[in-house]
Amino acid sequence: MEELLIIRDLNKHYDGIIAVDKVNFTIMPGTITGIYGDNGAGKTTLFNIISGFEKADMGNIVFEGEDITRKSVIYRSRKGIGRLFQIPRIFSDVSVLGNLLAAGNNHEAKYLHNYVLKPAAIRQNILKDRDKAKNILKEFNLTSKAGLKAFELSVGEKRLLSLCSLLMNEAKLLLLDEPFAGINEIAALQIQNYLISLKSRGMTLVMIEHDKTKLFELADSVYEMKQGSLLKKTSTSHANY
Amino acid sequence: MNYVINILIILQIYIILALSLNLKTGFTGLLSLCQAAFYGTGAYLTSILMVDIGLNFFTALFFAIIINITLNASITTWSAGRLRNLYFTLGTIALQIVFFGVIYNWQALTRGPFGIPGIPKPELAGLIFNTPLKFFILTLFFTASAILFFYWFAKTPLCKLLECTRDDEVWLTVLGKRPAYYKFVSISITVVFATIAGALYATFTSYIDPTSFTLDESILVLTIILVGGTGNIMGPVSGALIYVLLPEALRFVNMPDSIAANARMIIYALILIFIVRLKPNGLFGKFEIRG
User: Fold this and answer.
1) Which residues of A touch B167 (CB under 8 A)?
2) Nearest to B173 by CA among A135, A127, A45, A71
3) Which residues of A fall within a CB distance of 8 Å from B193?
4) How many domains does chain B have?
5) Architecture of domain A5-90+156-235
6) What ipTM was predicted for this assembly?
7) What residues make up the domain containing B130?
8) What local confidence, expressed as pLDDT, does residue B124 receive?
9) Which of residues 125-144 of A touch B (CB under 8 A)?
10) Is residue B248 pLDDT above 70, yes or no?
């Protein structure tokens, strides 16, 4: 099987301080990769570089065989790299369903003239997106919240909504920055189960987490990040999931 | 009767202006203080095209919209891409001041402080809108079109994406959407309707000068949507109703002539403060205006 993501000799410095130091790793499709490390070890910087928010000083990022090192966040997102932030990002004044519809790929609806020239295509896409969004909300147990404004959700639900939006956006690789931070155990267990179900569907996940036990429980490969360097800790099999 | 019709014409011009600003500021979250520049550019371009080149009102309006989008929408979108929140607002103030400077000083084109007199009335297939009632009907057509357009547009997926741009640009980018594009759409639509309002104002008064398009005018339109509320149609319409009709209603409050004008302004200001204090999001506001 071909690698989904290849990171080669990635380097990032801030005024002489090493944030990411010659990081090399590969991600296979349909796997969960975990990264842990102390605060300031460079985990989030690594995610920022992979998702395009920061540029690497050196090194390459290859996604699905294409070098995307110099590509924008938007380009990477359209290729299928989804990023979940530690503090969940949502469209707070938009409804839960509206958040998902906005994440959909209804290209015709982007252009004002299409509302005159291609109204049927737009209507059809809206119906298709609506069905898809409702299915995702059902899967993540958010159907009853569909009409609420996103800011009315709990932190755990907001995180789920972000995750749902990335699925709606058809992300292939999910970069999850501390998906269990700031939520209670029940919500954490719920998210954990969803992540396992995403993996079983063939999605690829890379996860930053402070809780090592959770990582070893969930991930196929676990890395420790220390002063910008990535050290492989173990490789586990989760066939039982 | 003409007095009432004239007030209703002015009211409709402000409704169009407020509805268009509502899209940019309320839906898209771009707190902007250059609405008078968009409005003034529309008024000046239409007037120049009609007076100097001799174009018909509707043809002049069409070209004024194209030029206004090319000039103002491009500059504002460019600054919206580089400046955030209050810095963007400061950028729009700069645009407003530059606009005023240009129309005040470019005398060869705008006649500077002397203004442009003798702007002809609109004409369509031989029908000249030269009486207050006829002009009211023309304005009503444009106002109704604006209300229907914004009512329809608010329900489109495109408008939802403008709301998303307001809420979180970074997240929109992560989802593969280009916030700059949505800002351009929002600003362009704002410019189109501000140009229409400007063209109506110029042909209604038959005379324009720079004093009608100052920063004060931009603040005033922003006040209208602050009082009425943003994010829906009712907000800007009710804000414009209060702004235009309340001072007129206060004329009927009997006061000694020596203090009447100032006292009316004080009562008007107190009522506005009371409304904003009681309803911080405006009378019908869906969203809070963010700076």
Assistant:
1) 90-94
2) A71
3) none
4) 1
5) 3-Layer(aba) Sandwich (3.40)
6) 0.90
7) 2-214
8) 92
9) 126
10) yes
